[in-house]
Amino acid sequence: MRFKAKQWDYLRGCWHLTPKEIEVAKLVCVGRNNEQIAEELDIAYNTARVHIGHICSKVGVRGKVGLIIEFTDTLQRAKI
Fold first, then answer.
1. What are the angstrom distances between the C-alpha of 3 and each of 35, 51, 62?
2. Under a CB-based contact definition with an 8 Å cutoff, are residues 11 and 71 in contact?
3. What is the C-alpha to C-alpha distance for residues 41 and 24, in angstroms, rounded to an integer?
4. Is the distance from CB of 25 to CB of 67 less than 8 angstroms?
5. What torsion, rounded to 10 degrees, do the Cα atoms 47, 50, 52, 58 define?
6. Distance from C-alpha of 1 to C-alpha of 26, rounded to nearest angstrom
7. How many CB atoms lie within 10 A of CB 37?
8. What is the 8-class DSSP label of residue 42?
9. Is the pTM of this model over 0.90?
10. pLDDT given at position 17
11. What are the pLDDT digits (tens) for 23-80?
């Protein structure tokens, strides 16, 4: 799922996501696994996992699928 810049700005504001968390979330939303995320962002695998955990915690979901669903639902409700 690819979102537009305006949509990412809205999502960032909803949950006070950091710029790095937005980078990670974008990769999650296009289907990258933790290893791919770590490689693309030049971070450790465990760091990628921690970022994903923080994002899910802030958004109040469990796992990547829940994250994508919540992002999509939030944007639909906001009509963005």
1. 22, 19, 21
2. yes
3. 8
4. yes
5. -140
6. 9
7. 22
8. T
9. yes
10. 98
11. 999 999 999 999 999 999 999 999 999 999 999 999 999 999 999 999 999 999 999 9
